[in-house]
Amino acid sequence: MKKYIKLMGNNGSGKTYTVRKILEQLTGKSPDFMENIYVDNMLCYHKCTCGKYGAMGKFREGLKCCGMDKISGKSKDGESFAYLDRLQRNVDKIRPDVLFDEGLINITLKTLEGISKFTDFYLFYLDYPIELCRKSIIELRQGKVSEGLLERRKKSHDNIYTKINVKKYGLNGKTVVDNMKTIIEITGITPCRCMATKSVNPQQVLIEETWRDV
Ligand SMILES: [Zn+2]
User: Fold this and answer.
1) In angstroms, what is the span from residue 36 Cα to ligand 1's centroid?
2) 3-205 has which CATH code?
3) What is the pLDDT of residues 39-91, one digit of tens each?
4) Could you list which residues have their CB under 5 Å from ion ligand 1?
5) Is the distance from CB of 6 to CB of 19 less than 8 angstroms?
6) Which of 9, 38, 85, 212 has a CA that sits 20 to 30 A from residue 103's CA?
7) Looking at the predicted structure, is the pLDDT value of residue 154 above 50?
8) Residue 22: helix, strand or coil by DSSP?
9) pTM value?
10) What is the longest distance spanned by two Cα atoms in the chain?
């Protein structure tokens, strides 16, 4: 893994949607249709056929919450997730050169600064007003927001973003496309071979490259 691109932001700020759009733009395929690969019994990711791009967590068409939000914070025997440790321990097994991560589970100063020690780390903060996030959850996703949740989350994210010592960029474009362009420009990522080699049988490639240790 060379680049690790983290999107943070409140519920309803569009983290997952932005990662989906970027992957579609650069690989020609939504992560909803990429295979889910486990590197240990809690850590998993999706990758494109050529292996250049990936995203942490689980995606599937129709899932309301995707990505890292689909990964539980505890294992079956009660072991806590400890994302940083798991990622570091398994980093050589994770194939993509560029890995996106948009989950809320692992947003702490220690975790994010820790990841930046062994990756080329970029932090993007989708920094939108609370009311806009609430509107997006309720109107676009027909979801519910518990009292005070977005306020607490914004405070905590603002705090982390102010203190964190990594390459960091606030994002508040008018559209997802604006934000996508900014991320692509800053990180210098380019379309992968999947865009040009549509004749490759994706299933065949995936079978060779897919493995689990659970
Ligand atoms: Zn690819």
Assistant:
1) 15
2) 3.40.50.300
3) 877 788 889 999 999 998 877 665 555 566 556 555 555 555 678 888 999 99
4) 27, 48, 50, 52, 192, 194
5) no
6) 212
7) yes
8) helix
9) 0.84
10) 51
